[in-house]
Design a protein that fits this description.
This protein is an alpha/beta fold. Helices cover about 35% and strands about 15% of the residues. Among the domains are: about 100 residues, Succinate dehydrogenase/fumarate reductase flavoprotein, catalytic domain (Flavocytochrome C3, Chain A, domain 1), CATH 3.90.700; about 110 residues, Methane Monooxygenase Hydroxylase, Chain G, domain 1 (Up-down Bundle), CATH 1.20.58.100. It contains 14 helices and 20 strands. The strands form five sheets. Strands 6-3-2-10-17 form a five-stranded parallel β-sheet, covered by helices on one side. Strands 18-16-11-20-19 form a five-stranded mixed β-sheet. The protein has a four-stranded mixed β-sheet with strand order 1-9-8-7, with helices on one face. The protein is globular and about 60 Å long. The chain starts with 6 loop residues before the first strand and ends with a strand. The N terminus is likely disordered.
């Protein structure tokens, strides 16, 4: 896969190799090494701190009071946001175990905001029926979570491979046994491990405008697909409604918490047109429709009514100051941006994928927690909960998946007792598609793919727009040669995930959650199913 680079085989076998350095992977790594004494390796293509987690401005949703009724409300809100496609067992695990995982993180040194009495401050965010979201530094929650976990990992794990790129999974006898990776100097390395955990994050770089860092190229999802693992819910890609309209990438995020504190969304005439506390898909859809109607590139967030803004949101205040904006006086230019991959590699309730020896946690997965649309501030919580669950399963001697959670639609696809069944679709070869003209350079081809996905498979989609996007992706696919650089591998991964997303979006002829087909605006009861995608 890497030209003439030599292959170096790792000498020692690890109990667990974690791919990725976000909240899901590092939570698992710390638990495996510290609690269970496993030999753990962490491999990340950047530096340990350089994960999507650190960009998360939203908080962590968890009922820390332990009140059963309040926990049930968290479950109900999550199910409501998921538009009929959440797996209730997965959501129950999330809301029940989440508070303990938050407290464990605090025990590792994470510092969250507290009120004058010393109690943890909680706030209200879109889609939540009551205040239950905790933050760090107002809107620096991800950065604080990442800091605490990185510090713990550096104290506990066996080996860390930074600036290393996982190219593909090693599969032997129907089991994942490690990865093929490129080191910092380009050498090809095989790293053996009894278990591999995919915690590589999402694929926001599929789109031209995203809040995700440049590293979010769907690597884990694409590797799993090539290895034969099942993926699902790829058509549900959540767009955050309030990204700052600014040339920088990733786009600076104006946290959900601003709307929870009273910020209003206004159109180009200053009119308020949407309930700001609706789930993200509702707000993003309304904003996109209004932008198209008024032929503008952005709308406005009016946060002038928030008192003590700089004290409450120091990170956002600093970001706005860099572009000359004062939130106490200025309306803030905003537009939806690709933010969170709601689907991915299908797992059971313990994080096992359909490929024995391969586990997954965090944004790269389809656990069934998010369904058709993620509830705000459930993403960091998902990583905290399901990453450690993988470790507990490995410690208990579990090898492969069981028919629980989202995995039921793979292992029991015809079980009539399943509340949410599965429809299996294979990826059609793109040879018959007339491709669009493709530029020469890897960067130019990536930009072409991103533009096409944004225009044809973004917030609003139609059958013709998806077909036009398929043609662009077909052209990029044909242009791929033997990858020689990390950028080449990343483009190949983006193409693979794009193909899965487009296949599912074409098949889902309805509008549900984060997937809106303008030519099929209604919800279809026949499509209250999970669309499972597998490579031929």
């Amino acid at each position: 896969m890497t030209g003439t680079s030599p292959t170096v085989r790792a000498r020692a076998e690890l109990d667990l190799l974690v791919l990725g350095s976000g909240v899901a992977g590092l939570s698992a790594a710390v638990r495996a090494a510290d609690t269970h004494g496993m030999a753990v390796g962490v491999l990340t293509k950047g530096e340990l701190e350089q994960a999507t987690t650190r960009w998360a401005q939203g908080g962590v949703a968890a009922v820390l009071s332990g009140d059963p009724d309040a926990i049930d409300l968290h479950l109900a809100d999550t199910l409501e946001a998921g538009a009929g496609l959440c797996d209730i067992d997965s959501v129950r695990v999330l809301v029940d175990e989440g508070p303990s995982r938050v407290n464990e993180l605090i025990g590792l040194g994470a510092i969250f905001d507290r009120d004058a009495t010393g109690a943890l401050s909680v706030s209200l965010e879109g889609g939540h029926s009551e205040a239950r979201v905790i933050h760090a530094g107002g809107a620096a929650t991800g950065e604080e979570v990442e800091r605490a976990l990185v510090s713990a990992v550096q104290r506990t794990v066996t080996v860390v491979h930074e600036r290393s790129f996982a190219v593909d999974l090693l599969v032997d006898g129907g089991r994942c046994v490690g990865v093929i990776a490129r080191g910092e100097t380009g050498e090809r390395t095989e790293i053996a491990a009894r278990n591999v955990l995919l915690a590589t994050g999402g694929a926001g770089q599929l789109f031209a405008v995203t809040t995700n860092p440049a590293e979010a190229t769907g690597d884990g999802t694409a590797m799993a697909m090539r290895a034969g693992a099942a993926v699902a819910d790829l058509e549900f890609f959540q767009f955050h409604p309030t990204a700052l309209h600014d040339p920088r990438m990733p786009r600076p995020l104006l946290s959900e918490a601003l709307r929870g504190h009273g910020a209003l969304i206004r159109d180009s005439t200053g009119e308020r047109f949407v309930d700001e506390l609706e789930p993200r898909d509702v707000v993003s859809r309304a904003m996109t429709a209004r932008m198209l109607e008024q032929k503008v590139e952005h709308l406005w967030l009016d946060a002038t009514g928030i008192s003590h803004f700089a004290r409450r949101f120091p990170t956002i205040t600093s970001t706005l100051a860099e572009v000359g904006l004062d939130p106490g006086v200025d309306w803030l230019p905003i537009a939806p941006a690709a933010h969170h991959q709601c689907g991915g590699v299908i797992t059971d309730l313990r994080g096992a994928t359909s490929l024995p020896g391969l586990w997954a946690a965090g944004e790269t997965t389809c656990t069934g927690v998010h369904g058709a649309n993620r509830l705000a501030s459930n993403s960091l919580l998902e990583g905290m909960v399901f990453g450690p669950r993988v470790v507990e399963a490995i410690d208990a001697g579990v090898v492969g998946p069981e028919a629980s959670g989202a995995m039921r639609c793979v292992l029991d696809p015809d079980d009539p007792t399943l509340e949410i069944g599965g429809v299996h679709i294979g990826l059609e070869p793109l040879d018959s598609i007339e491709p669009a003209e493709v530029p020469v350079g890897t960067g130019e081809r990536r930009a072409q793919l991103q533009r096409a996905m944004t225009l044809g498979a973004g917030v609003l989609r139609t059958g013709p727009s998806l077909a036009a996007t398929v043609a662009v992706v077909a052209g990029v696919r044909r242009s791929l040669a033997e990858p020689r650089t990390v950028a080449d591998h990343e483009l190949a991964n983006l193409v693979t995930v794009a193909e899965g997303l487009l296949a599912a979006a074409m098949a889902r002829t309805e509008s549900r959650g984060a997937h809106t087909r303008s030519d099929h605006p209604d919800v279809s009861e026949l499509l209250q199913v999970r669309l499972v995608v597998r490579l031929p």
